[in-house]
Amino acid sequence: MTTATEAPQDLTAEQEQFDRLIADDSRIEPRDWMPEAYRKTLARQISQHAHSEIIGMQPEANWITRAPSLKRKAILMAKVQDEAGHGLYLYSAAETLGTTRDQMMADLIAGKARYSSIFNYPARTWADMGAIGWLVDGAAIANQVPLCRASYGPYGRAMVRICKEESFHQRQGFEILLELANGTEAQKQMAQDAVNRWYAPSLMMFGPPDDDSPNSKQSMAWNIKRFSNDELRSRFVGMIVEQVKTLGLTLPDDEIGYNEESGKWEHDPLDWDEFKEVLAGRGPCNAQRLERRREAHDDGAWVREAAAAYAAKQAEKRTMEEAA
Ligand SMILES: [Fe+2]
Ligand SMILES: [Fe+2]
Predict the structure, then answer these.
(1) How many domains, the chain?
(2) Potential cystine with 278: which of 15, 25, 283, 291 (Cβ 3.0-4.6 Å)?
């Protein structure tokens, strides 16, 4: 029996239990009580992440029919398909927090939901497939490896599998660039141009600088986020600064250097006004990306209807079998 006076005490006990799990670095599962703000933060983050995976299929899907060989086409198709799978795991993880996938999709299509601003840049040449794999998937890995330990169970577990596939994506991108960089002068130029265009946007994938990222602190206190935006960005710079040497290419940044005192990699200041513009929907491809997603959603209506009809039929069959 619950009385009015007991309710606040229960809530405190639940909050204490939650705080204990977080302090022990344990996992919060869907059945556990959680503060509303924790639930909302995660629902927003995981759904945005899911949207990024499926919108992120577009710049590369655009090149499947123009891949330079059958082998490249098969690899690119597998990669784009992986991204659809990542979306699926993440929508499923987000659904455990109480929002339906239909609702999340409706918000995306209505332009109410955000996704990573990187996918609003165009993929102009075949070398962009290399730069996206190396830099964009590379930044995604740097961001996501610590998320494998996120306090919310379904999110952390989804990230483990995603990260394994992302490392294949990064290597395939690197290998495309390596081949181009060792090809003709024109191919090398094409690779360098792609790196030049994707470098700064990929650094911005880690989010705004720490002093302009008000929610980061709370996310870190909840063990969702393990490292700050600037920390992750610095690590990523340290990683690619070495890898670019193997490619025989350069990064378009004169300021890159390791600061012994801070233990951080430093880089050119990034254009955060551009970042905000793209995030606000005014990037080069925002309208096109959403339009394409709407079309794909409409085109897929019959598949959803057929799947629902099949599920209903199976359920009916089971009920009849149970009754017999
Ligand atoms: Fe992905
Ligand atoms: Fe990927």
Answers:
(1) 1
(2) 283
